[in-house]
Design a protein that fits this description.
Elements: H1 2-34, E1 54-69, E2 74-86, E3 97-99, E4 108-110, E5 114-118, E6 123-126, E7 131-143, E8 155-164, E9 172-176, E10 182-183, E11 192-206, E12 211-224, H2 227-244, H3 255-275, H4 288-315, H5 319-346
Parallel strand pairs: 1-9, 1-10
Antiparallel strand pairs: 1-2, 2-7, 3-6, 4-8, 5-7, 6-7, 8-12, 11-12
Length: about 350
């Protein structure tokens, strides 16, 4: 009986030990989780409150570019943003990953209107001496604010800006991260050439707060690939114009043929303009392409007027004068067209 009792006591002791060990492990894990807890940190107070402005390093890389919409003036792409600053209050949390809302941060926002989505967790990593780093990737469509006066031979300087909206320039200053600021080697866009993307630190006066704020700008230098418009629009226009000049080599006595060819050229031009209207952006002002189309229309219409003039002269038995006018127009019209095109391209 005593042996049975001893064995039972031993089993109970062993069970107590075995059942108690996991509880010790759970306490240790909880203590490990508490290491990265920051309930004591005032997130609305910057690290150097009352002192010099916080120095925040910012870099933005254009990771991808999907579309530059001319009419809506929007930019659709991916933007990789890295922000870092020093918060001595987090010096003991080296190696921790902390939610962004649990620490003080400069609160950078895009000033370009639009809609962006994030693809990474909204967490910061803490390094040595409280160096905080926040990396986020944004994708979506934002306003690009560019002018199309020189379309389709235009170059655009598109600026994407970040602003610490809650902090004035006396509280936060921005420093450009040269290593990150730039553009990826390959972009998913076919009708533009991206020449460069450069980061810069500036200031901006915000009317709503009546104060100056630091601002980070990524200036994207772009150039439109105009080959499509040259071969698809401008070359056919030039050929239609040249077709209208063929009436100058037709005997003025054959006025029916002259008028018929001039009218055909005019109608062909009008039909072509309607057919290509979808490739021309609909704007409230004239572009270079619009001016070139107008020049072609005027020259073709003048050729029609010239045909009517020589027809009238032939009807008045002034065939010789009509022939001389045709000879002059063979040179005058191409020269006039070339001068008008040069004027349009220059201005």
């Amino acid at each position: 009986m005593r042996v049975v009792t001893a064995i039972a006591s031993l089993i109970v002791a062993l069970c107590a030990v075995l059942l108690g060990e996991p509880s010790y492990g759970q306490v240790d894990a909880a203590e490990a989780d508490d290491v990265c807890d920051t309930p004591h940190l005032a997130t609305d107070v910057r690290p150097n409150a009352g002192g010099p402005p916080e120095e925040v390093t910012v870099g933005m890389r254009l990771a991808d570019l999907h579309e530059i919409n001319d009419v809506a003036q929007t930019l659709t792409g991916d933007y990789l943003v890295a922000v870092s600053w020093t918060d001595p209050r987090l010096a003991d949390l080296e190696g921790c990953e902390i939610p962004l809302d649990d620490v003080w941060n400069p609160g950078l926002v895009f000033t370009n209107s639009g809609r962006l989505f994030t693809s990474r967790p909204m967490e910061v990593s803490v390094g040595a001496n409280g160096r905080v780093r926040y990396v986020q990737r944004y994708f979506g469509t934002i306003a690009s604010y560019h002018s199309l006066q020189d379309f389709p031979f235009d170059r655009q300087e598109i600026v994407v800006s970040l602003l610490p909206i809650e902090a004035s320039a006396d509280e936060v200053i921005l420093v450009v991260d040269e290593r990150l600021s730039g553009v990826a080697d390959r972009l998913n866009i076919s009708d533009w050439t991206i020449n460069s993307a450069t980061g810069s630190a500036n200031t901006q006066f915000v009317d709503a707060y009546d104060r100056h704020h630091a601002r980070y700008d990524l200036t994207i230098s772009t150039q439109r690939i105009s080959d499509y418009y040259v071969w698809k629009v401008l070359l056919p226009l030039a050929l239609i114009v040249a077709m209208s000049w063929s009436v100058f080599w037709i005997n003025p006595a054959h006025f029916g043929t002259q008028i018929g060819l001039s009218a055909t050229a005019m109608l062909t031009l009008i039909a072509f303009i309607f057919a290509t209207s979808n490739v021309v952006p609909k704007l409230g002002y004239f572009t270079i392409l619009d001016r070139l189309i107008n020049v072609c229309t005027i020259v073709v219409f003048l050729a029609l007027i010239q045909s009517l003039t020589t027809t009238y002269l032939v009807a008045k038995d002034r065939v010789a004068l009509a022939g001389r006018i045709d000879q002059i127009c063979r040179v005058a019209f191409p020269l006039m067209f070339a001068v008008l095109v040069l004027v349009v391209l220059k201005f």
